[in-house]
Amino acid sequence: MLKRLRENKSAQGTLLASPTMLWMIGLLIIPLLLTLVVSFGQRSPDGDVIYSFSLDNYIRLFGYSTDCDNGQASCFDPLYLQILWRSLTLAFNTTVFVILLAYPLAYFIARAHPLRRNTFLFLVLIPLWTNFVIRVYAWMMLLRTQGVINLMLGWLAGLFNIPFTPLEMLYTPGAVLVGMVYEFLPFMILPIYTSLEKIDNSLYEAAADLGANGLKTFARVTLPLSMPGVVAGTILVFIPVMGTFIVSDILGGRQVILVGNLIQRQFLDARDPTFGSAASLILMILTLIVTYFYTRKFGFGEEIVVA
Amino acid sequence: MTAEFAVELQDVVKRFITPEGNALNAVDHVTMQIKNGEFFSMLGSSGCGKTTSLRMIAGFEWPTEGEVYIEGKAMGHTPPFQRKVNTVFQSYALFQHLTVFQNIAFGLEMEGAQKDEIEKRVKHVLEMVQLTGMERRKPKQLSGGQQQRIAVARALVKVPDVLLLDEPLGALDLKLRKDMQLELKALQQQLGITFVYVTHDQEEAMTMSDRIAVMSKGKVQQMGTPVEIYERPANRFVADFIGDSNFFEGRIKSLSKNEAVVFIPDLKAEVTGIPVSQGLVTGEEITVSIRPEKVLISEKPMNQNTFRGRVTNTVYIGTDTHVYVDLMGKRVKVFEQNRISRLDPGSFYTVGQDVTLVMMPENVLVLKKE
Amino acid sequence: MNPHRRHPFIFSSAMLVYVFLYAPIVVLILFSFNASRANVTFEGFVPSFSDKVVMDGSLVLSSPCGPFHWFCELAKDKDVAEAAGNTLTIAIISTLVSSVIGTMAALSLQRYEFKLKPFSQLSLYIPIVIPEIVMGIGILTLFSQLFGVINSSLGLTGDSRLSMGLGTVIVSHIAFSVPFVTLVVQARLQGFDKSYEEAAMDLGANEWTTFRRVTLPMILPGVLSGALLAFTLSLDDFVITFFTNGPGSTTLPIYVYGLLRRIITPQVNALSTVWILTVFSVVLILQWLQNREAKQH
To answer: What is the pLDDT of residues A219-230, one digit of tens each?
Structure first.
């Protein structure tokens, strides 16, 4: 029997991959399919699923509402569409800000002395290794009305005798943006660093030799060659931001509701798993669509595999 | 050894499917017998099938058709670890995480040998390759030449029936390569083990081998001793691949007993008295070839096979002068040994000089067209 | 042109980003010594040591642990201990399993062709390109429906009912770790020269011995990288754990989240500080070990 296995290469491959495949089928494929099925279901009174084929959830997501102001039977409620849009724009804005902040730091580390680079990198990684939740909490402390930032601003205003009312920073969309940027910054720094680090020094020398000054070299040599890193980082940032609910939960309170919060609420408070499943599926499809078009244009940045 | 041959390939075919979906015979109906105790080389350029053939002897590939025999036993689908052959790899494949000692001991551990025996045999084989004292080093710490010798030691310590060597000297620089060629040859003669050697370097093959199989496009073009291959190439490919040759298209004008007269249209002349074996027909289109070192530049009038031409170029090599002569529009290469030491450039051949070329009939080869 | 030349703009913006990264952490650590229990503003360090905790409103005046008052409170907290234990257990088990099956999968994807290969590769990419929450609620739905069916058909009630807990969390952690392990090991395998394995077989080792004595030692750095990644992902995971945990399987991130929604005392900060310092020390130790090994070559 062993002999037959030895000869059948493809069976060997299947065998080796089977535990992983079973896991992925059981805990990824089937759950996703189940989510799809449930999304077409209806909510039972005790919060369970009645399996049926109904498009109610999707219609509701896209604006159909029976809970209307002026006694109409049905009207357009853009609530859920607004939530989707808010998530998209937040993900986009976060990505942009993250790139703006990450690039200079990544550039700095990449051009630093080789012996010190590891230290600088570790300094970037350490916040990453402290817990996600803790990092969000830290911003809560900074942004509170009596938080650190307001305290410092108040102190500064006192120095110049300017009247100062504490800024309401917490529980605003801005706070959520700051929180998201903070959370995902290291995920952009690392890929950009990796792609910058790969640029051979001789390329800079060649550019200088051909007459390019610092800015030109950056624009024509460095920037294009670092694009795979930016692309990889974008994927690492955009997708999670689309789904995160904890940042908006803690820093945005009830004011900022994203798709993630919506889904979370459906499964916990509102106990409507069918609606939550539909929302989750729309989230996934939306994310996949954006990612697809993005990678079509910019590639995967696969060259950067961050360890 | 009880078997007639150390290694035998019988009508072996190895077929691959290319990415485009075509079938390609990397080894195309190859039959060869390798004698016990001989130094046998497979020679050819990349893609000729020599490495694939070697791998089929080692057991890393299985023939699509045909059979591989080692010491008379058909190998079939026997895996490499059940064959009594060992390989020296082109990249040496020394285990980076093991010391030199552990590398060499590896094969002995697989045999189940005891500690003392392993120590003894590893020491012995290290002496053989003159690397005693290197036991504790890691491969990374060795030079290319040293790594190569450890690779040989690792394979030899198991005393295989056949040692397979896959272009083992390719990564070494010239001087080291030449030294290693002599060392390997000496080792083989000392041990009496059959060596099957793969290389693309014809000088290497000619220097070291008892017999050579010249391969191209998956087929054996010719098998024989270095002398046979060089002086009696079987076809145009071998004549061209080994050393240099001048080729002329011709037609057999007449045949008699063991001699032929060939008419060469390009030279508008005949070449007479060529010794030939059977298998030729009058009127047959053939290729005539003569090696450059065998073309004589002579002023003495000779009756047979003289041609007038003009020198177009000369290249001074040191041992020889290469003279390129235009014969009726055909370029002929002549290698003349510089037997007399001279400095005066005027005494060498000059461009534009008229010369007489003589082709002694016993030096002319008739090759069948493929 | 000196490649290491420091451009002032780059340098200052880089330093600003570092400040941005660390300011919250510094504040966090500072506040773990806060004398004010309400933890809204920093009221200074707990001034003195005493046998018992003495409070004045929300201010801690003195405590057996002095400024480290909240760390002591933390040590006494059984819930934290349980959460920490769970977090570690889950991380270790899921890392072990995902490393083994992930390495197997990487080997199969890198070296073999088989019918289900495209499907395998695709299913390993999916967790990376979808938001975690989608996978989380999917698994939640699966388990809740599955357990519901099993419980009712077998008539299980009370404690013998199947429900979410340590098992479901571990199984889910393995699911999201495996793709990463596979990816990392696959990347390592790409440059792998097969002639090492051929050499081993040539010298008499069968497939398993070759794997054990040659392949595995050579890919071990990659496998360990993957394992480290899996460990980190599991330790830090919030979303998937959030949807798959149950009573008795709380992990530290979930625990902290719970605290944040209720009362926030400096004890949370103390927990954060301990976490940060632990990570910091582990990283330093790993760095030191790595440097030592590098020096030996």
So the answer is: 888 888 888 888
Chain B residue closest to C199 (CA)? B93
Which segment of A269-273, B236-240, C204-208 scores lowest on mean pLDDT?
A269-273
Contact check, Cβ <8 Å, A129/C1: no
Residue B180 corresponds to which tokens in the numbers above?
């290693």
**How many angstroms separate the Cα of A227 from the Cα of each of A106, A188, A305, B150?**
13, 12, 14, 45
What is the reported pLDDT for A301?
57
Domains of chain A: 1-39 (no CATH), 82-298 (1.10.3720.10)
**With an 8 Å Cβ cutoff, are B79 and A7 in contact?**
no
Q: Per the structure block, which two tokens stand in for B117? A: 């025996």
CB-CB under 8 Å, B87 with C199: yes
**Per CATH, which fold does B244-368 belong to?**
OB fold (Dihydrolipoamide Acetyltransferase, E2P) (2.40.50)
**Which 8-state DSSP code applies to residue B112?**
T
Give residue-wise pLDDT tens across range B222-235: 999 999 999 999 99
* Chain A nearest C-alpha distance from C51 (Å): 31
Question: Structure pTM?
Answer: 0.81
Which value does ipTM take for this structure?
Answer: 0.83
Closest Cα in chain C to B151 = C199
| Structural domain boundaries in chain B | 7-239, 244-368
- Which of A77, A57, A59, A78 shows the shortest CA–CA distance to A67? A77
Q: Which domains does chain C have, with CATH numbers?
A: 11-67 (no CATH), 78-263 (1.10.3720.10)
Contacts of A32 in chain C (CB under 8 A): 126, 134-135, 138
Query: What is the C-alpha radius of gyration for chain B, rounded to an integer number of angstroms?
Result: 25
Which residues on A lie below 8 Å from B77 (Cβ)? 3, 6-7
CATH class (in words) of the domain with range B7-239: alpha beta
